[in-house]
Amino acid sequence: MAMIERKFSLHVPSSTENLALIREYVTTIGASAGLSDSDVAKLELAVDEACANVIEHAYGHDLTKEVTVRAIFDEDTLSIIVEDTGRGFDPNSVKQEELQELIAKHKSGGLGLRLIQTLMDEVHYEIIPGQKNELHMKKHIRKS
Amino acid sequence: MAMIERKFSLHVPSSTENLALIREYVTTIGASAGLSDSDVAKLELAVDEACANVIEHAYGHDLTKEVTVRAIFDEDTLSIIVEDTGRGFDPNSVKQEELQELIAKHKSGGLGLRLIQTLMDEVHYEIIPGQKNELHMKKHIRKS
Amino acid sequence: MPNPFVLNTTNREDLSIMSIEGYLDAHTAPQFEEKLQAEIEAGRTRIVVDCSKLSYISSAGLGVFMSFIEEIREHSGDIKISGLAPKVRHTFEILGFHDIFDLLDDVQAAVKRFEDKPTREV
Amino acid sequence: MPNPFVLNTTNREDLSIMSIEGYLDAHTAPQFEEKLQAEIEAGRTRIVVDCSKLSYISSAGLGVFMSFIEEIREHSGDIKISGLAPKVRHTFEILGFHDIFDLLDDVQAAVKRFEDKPTREV
Ligand SMILES: Nc1ncnc2c1ncn2[C@@H]1O[C@H](COP(=O)(O)OP(=O)(O)O)[C@@H](O)[C@H]1O
Ligand SMILES: Nc1ncnc2c1ncn2[C@@H]1O[C@H](COP(=O)(O)OP(=O)(O)O)[C@@H](O)[C@H]1O
Fold this sequence. Notes:
The complex is a heterotetramer, with two copies of chain A and two copies of chain C.
Chain A: E1 6-13, H1 19-33, H2 37-58, E2 66-73, E3 77-84, H3 99-104, H4 112-119, E4 122-128, E5 132-140
Antiparallel strand pairs in A: 1-2, 2-3, 3-5, 4-5
Chain C: E1 5-12, E2 15-24, H1 29-41, E3 46-57, H2 59-74, E4 78-82, H3 86-94, E5 102-104, H4 107-116
Parallel strand pairs in C: 2-3, 3-4, 4-5
Antiparallel strand pairs in C: 1-2
C-alpha cells in the first residue's frame, strides 16, 4: 500500500513564548510519522533551535511577524521546513567556534546551528534575503 | 498597554488521527490566551467536534483534503475559525433531536452541534458551498 | 503515540468489565464500538465501563453509549459507568447523560448497583 | 501554562542549590540567567544546579551555563549539575558539556564533589 504524503503547517507569532507550541506540534507529528522516541526528541530540539533563531535573528523579537513550520511525511522520511521572511543570512559565513572558545569569550550563544546539523539527517538552507528564508531538515524513518 | 492581536493557524490532513494534534494546539493557545482550565477544556471539546464534523461530513474522510484551524486572541476574546472547502451544509436545517429520541433511534451521532453551541460564547457559520465553509467560535477571556 | 487509547475487557461471572484508557474521540470510538458490539453479540449485556483512566471524551465516544443502551436494556441488561474524572464527567452532564446512565464512583459501586438495579427503563 | 518553568534557590552554608523545573528554552533561559547572575554578584560561586525535574533544555539553556562558568571558576567556585534525565543529559553530551562540567547523579553527590574538587580548570 503506497502511503500518501501527509502535509501539515503551523503559523505562529514570532515570540519565544510560542516555542512550546511548536515543540508539541512537531513531536506529535514525529510520533505519527513513526519516529522512535529518541528521534522525536532530536526533532523537537532541532526545530526549537531553528525557530528560536528565526524569532531572535530573522525578526529581532518582532511579535507582528510570523514563523511557519511545515511538516511533510511519507513512510520513509519526515521533512520539516522552517520559514521566515526576515533579513536572511549566509549560513556558510557563520563561524563554528569550539566550546572552549565560546566559554573563554563568555558567549551564551553559538550552539544552535551545530545542534541542528548533528540532530537531523539532512539540512540545507534556501535563502532569498528580504523575501523568504527556508531551513529544510529531514529525518529518515527507521522501520522497526 | 494595548495587547496586539496574536494570530495562529494550523493546517492538517483531513483524518481523525489528527484530532489529537488539533486538541493540543487549541489547548496550548487557550492557556496562552489566559483562559481558565475549565474554559480550556470547553474550547478543546468544541474545536474537536467542529473538526470531526469537517473530516466526516465535509470531506468524507478524504485524507488528501485539508482542515484549517485559525486562532486569534487579544486580551478580551479568543476566536477560533475552523475552515473547510467541502460540500457545505445548512446549519439551520439540521434537526436538533432530544437525547431520548436519539437513543430510541439507536443513533450514535447528532450531539456535536449542540455541544459546540453550549461550550462556546458565540458561534456562527459562514458557508459558501463548494468554496469555503467557516465555523466561527468565540470564547471571552475572564479576568482573574 | 499522539492518540493513545487502550481497551481491556474482563469477564467476571455474568458481568463484563470494560476499562477504557486515554482519549475516546472520533478516531478511537470505532474500537470501543466494535468491542461493545461483540459483548452484546455474545449475549453479555451486563456491562461496567470503567473510565477511571479515561482522560478525554468527545461526542463520538458518548455516541457509542447512546446507540447501544436501548438494545442492552431490552435484554434486561445495562451499562453502568464508573470512575469518571471531573472533566470527562462534565461532558456527560452537559448532554444529560447522567439522567439516562448510572454513573458510579468506582467499579465496586457499579458492580453493587447491578445487584440493586440490574436494568433501567430507557 | 504552555511553558512551565520553576526556579528555586536554597542557600546552604557556602553552597547555593538552584533547582530548575520544566522547560529551559529561549523563553525561560533569561530567568535562569538573571538568578545565576544574582548569585555571582552576591559572591556565591559554589553552585549546584539540580535538574532532576528539568524535562527539556535547548541551547539557550546550555548557553547560560557556558557564559558564566569561566567567571565562576576564576573565583575558585564551580557549577555542579545534578540529576539530569537521560533525554536532557543527551543534549549536554551532544555539545561536549560533560567534558567541561561535573554531572552528578543527585544533589548529595554534587555537594560531596564540592568537598573533593571545589573548582576545575576551564
Ligand atoms: N534564521 C536566521 N536568520 C538570520 N540569522 C540567523 C538565522 N539563524 C542563524 N542565524 C545567524 O547564525 C548565527 C549562529 O546561530 P546559532 O548557531 O543558532 O547560535 P545563536 O543563535 O545562539 O547565536 C546567529 O548568531 C545568527 O547570526
Ligand atoms: N462541516 C460540516 N460540513 C457538512 N455537514 C456538516 C458539517 N458539520 C455538521 N454537518 C451536518 O450536521 C449534522 C449534525 O452534526 P452533529 O450535531 O455534529 O452530529 P454528527 O456529526 O454526530 O452527525 C451532521 O450529521 C451533518 O449532516
